[in-house]
Amino acid sequence: MSGSGAGPRLGILTGTFDPVHRGHIALAKAALVAGGLDGVLLMVNPAPEHKTGVAALADRLEMTRLAVADEPGLGVYDGVLAGEPQVAATFAALARELGSKSVVFVMGIDTLARLDRWPDVESVVKNATYLAARRGGVGDAEVAALRQRLGPLGSALRVQLFEFNEAAGASSAQVRAAVRAGEPTVDLDPMVRDFIERKGLYH
Predict the structure, then answer these.
(1) Suppose 178 and one of 58, 108, 183, 194 were both cysteines; which one would form an S-S bond, judging by CB atoms 3.0 to 4.6 Å apart?
(2) Residue 184 lies in a domain
(3) Residue 187 lies in a domain
């Protein structure tokens, strides 16, 4: 995707997507509306930390493409950026590549609440905008606590919270367990399930 001038206002949802499930898609769709975004791209983490036995990047990318194929406004970032996904250099490179000066990072409130532990925290706070999903009104206290931990940097944090109560029970771990057991996967797009079976993933 490319553009001129300010470019589109794009949301970026990063994740392992091993596999992508209906919770991920519902979150992206909710963020699209809540943030008034021009689109949301799912960005597959090529090498997630602290995770082993993850499906190949090519397979996770293809599953994610299949999951968004019929979802207007959603897409997949096909590139692989060098470095950690959660550092300012990655954010800047992504914005340049997408031709957008307004890239908003979509995440759950639990992830946002740990922002102070990210690499290069000063730059990611100053150079990125966040759209964080909360459930049942929870979130204001978490953001306030984060700002306090950030100290003087806390005032630079740009975040919008939005309510998201869909797909509460969906998880990639549960989906993988269901596939191994040969059970139905209601949280999985049928095209993604077909791909998993054809590739023999998670068995």
Answers:
(1) 183
(2) no
(3) no
| Domains contained in the chain, number | 1
CATH number, residue 138: 3.40.50.620
Structure tokens at 179: 């596939």
Residue 31 belongs to some domain of the structure: yes
The pLDDT score that the predictor gives to residue 4 is: 42
Residue 3, pLDDT score? 40
- Closest C-alpha to 196, from 15, 66, 107, 94: 66
* Parent domain of 129: 9-170
Q: Which residue has tokens 């946002």? A: 112
Residue in the block written with tokens 């995707």: 1
- N- to C-terminal Cα separation, the chain: 36
Provide the b/e sequence for 53-86 (b: ≥16 CB within 10 Å): ebbeeebbbbbbbbbbeeeeebbbbeeebeeebb
Residues of the chain with pLDDT > 70, as a percent, come to 85
**110 belongs to a structural domain:** yes
Residues in the chain with pLDDT values less than 70: 1-7, 49-50, 80-92, 100-101, 167-168
| Close Cβ partners of 198 (under 8 Å, ≥ 6 residues apart) | none
SS3 69: coil
pTM comes to 0.87
CA 137 to chain centre: 21
